[in-house]
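Technical annex B. To support the medicinal chemistry partners, we prepared a structural model of the target in complex with adenosine monophosphate, based solely on the information shown next.
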Amino acid sequence: MSAEPRDVPAAGTAPRSVDEHVTRILDSITALPPYEQPLLETVGLPLCEVVRSPLALPRFENSAMDGYAVRRADVATASQSEPVHLPVVGESAAGQSAPYGLPPGTTMRIMTGAPMPSGADSVVPVEWTDGGTGSVRISRAPDPGQHVRHAGEDVAEGDLLLEEGTLIGPREVGLLAGVGRSQVLARPRPRVVIMSTGNELRGPGEQLGFDSIYDANSYLLAAAVRAAGAIPYRVGVVGDDPQVFADALSDQLVRADVVVTSGGVSKGAYDVVKDVLSRLGTVEFCEVAMQPGKPQGFGRVGEDQTPILTLPGNPVSTYVSFEVFVVPALRRLTGRVPYRRPLTPATLTADVSSIPGRAQYLRGRFEEDGDGATVTPVGGAGSHLLYGLAHSNALVVLGEDVTAVAAGETVSVLALDRDF
Ligand code: AMP
Ligand code: MG
């Protein structure tokens, strides 16, 4: 705890690139250990095992239709003008059946999903009959084997069902449940403790003073954590008092896989996050060559060496930093690849500009139609502009050396509402 503050880069040192900062974060985070989780808890997580089928699907030969199980030879000649009549000797219904046998020259009523009686090879749909229960008139012959589902035609026992790494969604859950799995191996969703710092911040419903504002960031970050498939623990506003912040942080660590803070990392007089964490010597503060989001911090805190990412306080800076740095960290923890959102090309609909030496993340409205994708800048450049952020669905990413791009040119975009 007595280590000297580390504030990187030292005065005069060039800021670090976005890529380098992402790489450092990813390199120092390892995936959480997987465990057997209830099936529904794993939706949105990658599977951490190879799943083979413990049984065949269908498990037994059964009917695909409501109708009559027959030996096809008995009804081969059936037609509208010369129907075949067969005695109905029983009934096989789904979940209310038994290992029946079908004597030649007879039929059994059968319902969809019910086991075929042995000896029967085809099913006559009820629509081709008079629906009789004692005897039935059949006016059309099925093809041999028609309307029968065969054991193992979908999956054979021992078949590879899902590869390790498959993202679990509703269809995968259906297959897993269909072979009787109630649990699968997956990494837990990261628990993310979120702290907003700032003496000026008030919660919704609280009285605003002359110089106070509502806390947007802890809510924005909690929503972003949830959207990233992790579990947010939103701590109320923490003031800019070093002891209060240090105590709040140490109280929260017990439930955190990651801590994310907002505010208090610039060069002001009350930059509490930087003040407190610099002293630990395990959190590194640096400048990243980006706009918004220049002041960043990353490191570890507490007994368990919990990763912490300290984001700048302006809401747009916080959001962009979350997207660029926290999302990859969270995906790394659950083993979800790719870690970083892929860039998508789009045609700019208006001129944009940027300052040299910093990657620019401009808010934009991304649209796709038959002719391709376009992106329209939204709002101004200020990182306090919540309205423009809310009305955007993309970030236009301009490289460090780019200073202007004209309408009609292709740019790289982070399409924020897209799954990846
Ligand atoms: P800071 O990084 O603490 O210097 O804050 C930078 C700017 O962001 C200041 O104008 C703060 O008032 C504002 N800000 C910080 N935290 C929040 C928050 N949770 N919600 C809304 N604005 C904030
Ligand atoms: Mg502040």
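Notes passed to the chemistry partners:
Residues 1-7 have pLDDT under 50 and may be disordered.
DSSP finds eight helices and 27 strands in the chain.
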